[in-house]
Amino acid sequence: MVKKAGVLGATGSVGQRFILLLSEHPDFEIQALGASSRSAGRRYEDAVTWKQTSLLPESAKNILVSECSAAAFAGCDIVFSGLDADYAGEIEKQFVEAGLAVVSNAKNYRRNVDVPLIVPIVNPEHVSVVEKKLTDAQAKGEKKPGYIICISNCSTAGLVAPLKPLVEKFGPIDMLTTTTLQAISGAGFSPGIPGIDILDNIVPYISGEEDKMEWETKKILGGFSADGSEFVPLTHEQMKVSAQCNRVAVSDGHTECISLKFANRPPPSLEQVKQCLRDYVCDAAKLGCHSAPKQTIHVLEQADRPQPRLDRDRDAGYGVSVGRIREDPVLDFKMVVLSHNTIIGAAGAGILIAEILLAKKLI
Ligand SMILES: NC(=O)C1=CN([C@@H]2O[C@H](COP(=O)(O)OP(=O)(O)OC[C@H]3O[C@@H](n4cnc5c(N)ncnc54)[C@H](OP(=O)(O)O)[C@@H]3O)[C@@H](O)[C@H]2O)C=CC1
Ligand SMILES: N[C@@H](CC(=O)OP(=O)(O)O)C(=O)O
Asked: What range does the record give for the signal peptide (predicted)?
């Protein structure tokens, strides 16, 4: 049966991507759209300033945008949030208290010990904490509780994609550095980055981004408490991560230059690293999820790839491209990673998480 989906922050950069992905989805249909009081009460087509290169889907045009109240979303099986983080905290809390399942792009709850922080092509097994909450409540005869699952920061999603198979195969990564070149869609549309700031320019600062990359990576690649109810991130001693973040004049697609050193000596060979990335099949693909990438990591051999305009849409934006894999004279290896920030880094990740929940019969 098709599941009813709601979108909070439906008019924003991430929200618009949700509309595109849901309008073509076989398992979900849009039931409710929410945004600020500036947009509430208007038809979606009138409320939104559409900035996607695909046309606004006909099916979404006439949906009335509502205030972000749990009552307006009561009939939804799942609610995706692309809310401005200044407002997401309070609104999402009310939704969870009302018993709704929320998959959020906002940063507010990512560090809570019992909230999964998921990149669906990397750590979908982290939904087990929610699964436990649901089965515990059922065993006690309580009504199904609401819950929240957070999607990671968009740059973190690209970073952890190659790390996961490398750690699985070759053991822990002792240290890594990454320098990002992030697209302007990552800064959102309200108000968005002024042209005068980004044209002919690079801005070497994105507020909070470096700390998020350094911290979230350790939770995503980390483990669980003994009873499986909480997350235990890796410590700095277990994995040292250093990030430098830059905004560049690219519309979509975050590029990251990564250097890393394995803990185990001797490290794998260059060919073993490449083969490990090529061979990686994410669990979402094994579960047969509709949007799961056919090839999770595309290893590119051309000397000048990946490039955002040419490579961001591989596997419809759900696949990650890794190129220029080579030995590093300081650490062990270096490489360039490209991921679509509003698809696998945001809305697409939300959709794929929902598909995983559906496959596990949690919604
Ligand atoms: N862009 C990206 O690549 C990524 C973004 N994120 C996160 O996703 C979230 C959304 O980001 P993004 O789409 O870029 O942001 P935008 O600024 O483009 O959109 C923000 C959305 O929030 C709504 N909103 C603003 N104020 C309120 C309010 N008081 N009450 C209810 N709704 C409100 C806006 O509605 P209105 O139009 O009515 O003002 C709009 O729909 C953020 O938390 C961001 O950090 C995460 C990963 C990647
Ligand atoms: N900060 C990211 C997008 C974003 O909003 O991330 P987060 O959800 O972690 O705040 C960027 O600028 O590209």
From this structure: none
